[in-house]
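User: Once you have settled down, look closely at the record that follows, taking as long as you need, and be ready to discuss the fold:
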Amino acid sequence: MNQKGRQLTLPAATPVAPAQQPWTLYSDPQRWAFLGVLFLVTISSNFDYYVLGGVLEPLKREFQVSDTALGLLSGFCFSLCYAIAAIPFARWSDRGNRRTVLTTALAGWSVMTLLTGLARTFLQLGLSRVGVGALESGATPPAQSLIADYFPPERRSSALAIMLAGSSVGYLIGLALGGYIAATLGWRSAFLLAGAVGLILTLSTPLVLAEPRRQLGFPGADAQAESLGNALVRLRRKPSFVLTLVGLSIFYFFSYGVVNFLPSFMMRTLHASLEEVSLTWGIAVAVANLLGTLVGGRLAARLSKRDVRWYAWMSAIACLAGVPLYWLALSATHLWAFVAIEFVAEFVLWAGTFATWPAIHAICGNPRRGMAIAIAMFAYILLGSGFGPLAAGALSDALGATYGNQSLRYSLNIMTLALLLAALAFYLSGRSMSRDLED
């Protein structure tokens, strides 16, 4: 939008003065209370997603379906609606009350998770996951946008790291606790627990979270200054943003595709039980993700002060290191050897790739912050969560006639090669990042 158009939409008297920046409205105790609730919401979102990965084998036995069907259920059914719904949720977040957006989405995906536990056919299971996917897309845009308003720029990386660490905790609860409950009480109980916890959490979001736009008296003013078309054009003209999307999409194609089938790999190839998978690998990999995210947040904050391009280079280095680490892990013949190597691989990957999120905030520009996050989600969820598990499952089925129970091992090894392309995209993103900065 040109300067004349900007003046017509947003009068000169409206912008926030430096003393009125949204983060100046709150004390540190208030910020930590907000961050605590957003951390819990992130846990709920990931718990509801990852609990499915821990129960794929029981679902396969009960519904008598192929690995390809499981890939569709854990990937495409969820991600297609997630990606499509992310854009309207982002526009609502950029223009409206982000606290309301978050509360509505949280209540919705919790109800759909309860319905997953009540499904009696594979079709009902798929439809409930479609609902979970569509509604969970309303979590990240308002949550990250609120973090950017609650914390000043120099503290955003650390705050984002803490909030996104909730993904690792949700991963832990979904795979470890969810898998254990499924093994002892049945897979339906795991989904019923996940949905009930989310509904209880819904009570806290309207009571604790604040909406700075309302307190400053101009709800959605930033978003009203820029149309959807202009926001998309501005983002498309930033090479570092486009290349970051490419890197993220390829990384999550690998991540979602491999992680969804690792419990099945351990049970089929390493002859582990569901309880062993939940209480060893599930806990180990979640701790690795949690530590990696927190360490990555601190490292990104420190290195970016020297050179902002480290946001991209951290991700590139992590993806390159992930290839030999995953090949080594997938060649293991004993459960504990696999878990130990997998712990290192997950730590390295999550410590490095965390930096993509503060990178997006640094280059997108405030008027289109929610939209930038939604576009990133659309890209990596559709390609990553949508096609990653489907590709891994289809490869396993195709290799089954030749390799038998080892087919999943070879399928996941092939999927690991995607990390090389992700590393290249992140490296190229860093080369243009300095020119694209816009707070």
